[in-house]
């Protein structure tokens, strides 16, 4: 079982991002399997759509948000073994050439350890700030994946779609991972699960301990994903899963570890990304928290 942790990026931990390199190296030394970032380009004061597409509020913990690409680059330079993932980047907000360049750089610095996770997001204001149509974000994601595939696997590279256009250009600098870094995709709806089934190398679900732990729901979603993959002519075993575990304020490390072990036993999921931003205020506190979880999970 692989247990990874979020880098200091949001809430009060964001004010300690100068410790990112030290944190990353210490997590690797402690036996962590992976390090992760999320993505929040802005948190609207009066959001039309709330967190996760529900209601009309956004947790204040998301107001301070550090740059995910910079943090992954620092972590890449400070480590030699752990995987480096995004759970998730709101990928359609980024031009494909710039997104490919940033991720290629991180993958090369890390020697091929990048797990780029993408989602379409839920904030209309983030799309407005980028000058994009929120209602077409799903179609834009499809084109973005095609454009990244072209940029990462051909030279010269080009892409032409209904929403995205990449002129033919020299593209000799490629990621270390061949033929390209894997596409991990966040998905809860049937439409999004179909995208994972058709073209995802990995699926990125989530739970929150203890407020939202629906193991039966995870099993049902994975069963649905497997069937959709078979319908698309793919082997479901080719689609990995990394489960994000958000920790609610006041939750003990014992409860987190017990939940991780129960989910693993009941679902077979063997890679977990744990985020303490709602529960732990400092980077040092997050590191001690992570070490304790690793110890408890290892006890079996």
UniProtKB/TrEMBL annotation:
Q: Which residues form the Luciferase-like domain?
A: 10-271
Do you know which Pfam families this protein is assigned to?
A: Bac_luciferase
- Write down the top EC class of this protein: oxidoreductase
Q: Which UniProt keywords apply?
A: Flavoprotein, FMN, Monooxygenase, Oxidoreductase
Q: Which domain of life is it from?
A: Bacteria
**Keyword field contains Nucleotide-binding:** no
The catalytic activity of this protein is classed by the Enzyme Commission as 1.-.-.-
**Entry's Gene Ontology molecular function annotations:** oxidoreductase activity
- By what name is this protein known? TIGR03619 family F420-dependent LLM class oxidoreductase
- Species assigned in the record: Streptomyces prasinus
Q: What is the lineage of its organism?
A: Bacteria, Bacillati, Actinomycetota, Actinomycetes, Kitasatosporales
